[in-house]
Amino acid sequence: MASLWGGRFEKDMDELVKKYNASIFFDQRMYNEDIDGSIAHVTMLGRQGIVSEEEKDQIIAGLKEIKQEIADGKIIFNVDDEDIHMGVESRLIKKIGDVGKKLHTSRSRNDQCQVDTRLYLRKEIYEILNSLCYLESVILKKAEKYADQITVGFTHLQHAQPITIGFIFMAYFQMFKRDIERLNDSLDRLNYNPLGACALAGTTMPIDRHLTSELLGFTAPTENAMDTVSDRDYSLEFLSDASISMMHLSRWAEEFAWWNSSEFSYIAIDDSFCTGSSIMPQKKNPDMAELIRGKVGRVYGDLMQLLTVMKGTALAYNKDFQEDKESLFDAVDTWKATIDIFAKMLDKTEFRMDQIEKQLGKGFLNATDIAEHFAKQGIPFREAHSIVGHMVKMCENKNCDFEDLTDEDLQSIDSRVSKELLGDISIKNCVDARVSFGGTAPSEVRRQIKVGREWLNSLEK
Asked: Which among 69, 151, 257, 332 is placed 20 to 30 Å from 405, CA to CA?
């Protein structure tokens, strides 16, 4: 099949070069966007008198037929199509004749591939935002359920302070909230119309880029044609957003893996998200959590791949830019699937409070609370910190808890302290007392849930 760009050439492409050059096998997923962009473009050409109304209608009818034929599986693309743009245009010309050759007036594949990718990514971002919002709704539901349930808070993977499980959920709620805000923010920058930038310098034809922007739902046309055809910042920004969010998912997946271990046994993951062993009958492995933890690497790779492609490309368009799509498509598919699977796994995971209860007496979780209590009684905090440190050491030597220390023990550490001064140092009292803004007290967690729900509801409006 003769190429639509081959007029200057005496020889056809080498077959090996054709395969190496073609992007049709991956960019055909954007056929809807390609045809929608073409319909908007020819509508504008008709409005501006660049093509006749009859020609415009004929081209649009042909494009709609091709879209349906692709959807029905009646069109199978091959290496001779080169890319989705040429694949659609060549079939249009075959279908309606020479009038189809007018479609490409006042545009280039350089701006055409940009509009396709922006339209595609905009659609996918909306879907990902919906998935993230669903995940946030699951988090809020589980946070409410476990708002009063106490567990161990860790730093350096060591017992640190008692916290509520609802508090953990709301910590991750904030991470995914930032993911949503970042994605919405990047959507604002993405949503500008490349059509009419042409190869790099615009066109001499009397086009109306504001009209195509309106038809395609873009905020406005891009400002500079040279920047437009060479810009992949919006893809890089999306890949960065995806990488950060996948990192958040991976962090929680990591906690799932060790919460699920025999040493912790903090959670019971639903069987539908686990696998067994081919040799060990007793095993119930948290494979989805582990796979989520692993998938983040490929999305990081997608970001690094495109950053590397872009770093040495001079203005304006370069064939290197064809390498932007496979990494983008992979990140879209991986991120979207990971969010959906994690949300479902989270919804069907329950905490084993009987097992967690056994851990609350370990690691002197209430040590900080005792130091703060002493500070409230007038002992400078740094001195209170030292006193409690000595109390911990004494408990370790005597193999006992704070509550077991006698007045004599406490007086031997510091004459200012006594069991009466110690007060109620139960784990529950320590948690309930942490009512500072953003703290772990159940009352404060419920405030966070309320604010989170109000924010999530505002997005849906």
From this structure: 151
Specify whether the CB–CB gap between 197 and 225 falls below 8 A: yes
Cβ atoms of residues 296 and 243 within 8 Å: yes
| Antiparallel, parallel or unpaired: β 220-221 and 192-193 | parallel
Which tokens is 234 given? 């919006």
Determine contact, residues 91/75, Cβ cutoff 8 Å: yes
CB 324 within 8 A of CB 117: yes
3-state secondary structure of 280: coil
| N-to-C CA span, the chain | 51
- Please state, in angstroms and rounded to a whole number, the distance separating the CA atoms of residues 166 and 448: 10
What integer pLDDT is reported at residue 2 of this predicted model? 52
- Partners of 162 in beta bridges: 152
Task: Examine the pLDDT at 9 and tell me if it is beyond 60.
Answer: no
Would you give the DSSP letter of residue 220?
Answer: E
The secondary structure of residue 12, as a DSSP letter, is P
Give the torsion sign (CA, 144, 150, 156, 157): negative
Could you tell me whether strands 350-351 and 267-268 are parallel, antiparallel, or unpaired per DSSP bridges?
antiparallel
Looking at residue 6, what is its pLDDT? 56
Catalytic residue list: 156, 277
Does residue 460 have a pLDDT over 90? no
Burial class (CB in 10 A: 0-12, 13-18, 19+), 148: middle
Distance of alpha carbon 305 from alpha carbon 33, whole angstroms: 24
Check whether 361 has a pLDDT greater than 80.
Answer: yes
Instruction: Check if the beta carbon of residue 54 is closer than 8 Å to that of residue 108.
Output: no
At 275, is the pLDDT very low, low, confident or very high (cuts 50, 70, 90)? Answer: confident
What's the rounded mean pLDDT across residues 145-158? 96
SS3 406: coil
A 10 A CB-CB count for 48 gives 14
Residue type, 397: N
Contact 293, 256 (CB under 8 A): no
Residue 434: CB atoms within 10 A of its CB come to 22
Q: Are 112 and 428 in contact (CB under 8 A)?
A: no
Q: What is the mean pLDDT of residues 279-302?
A: 91
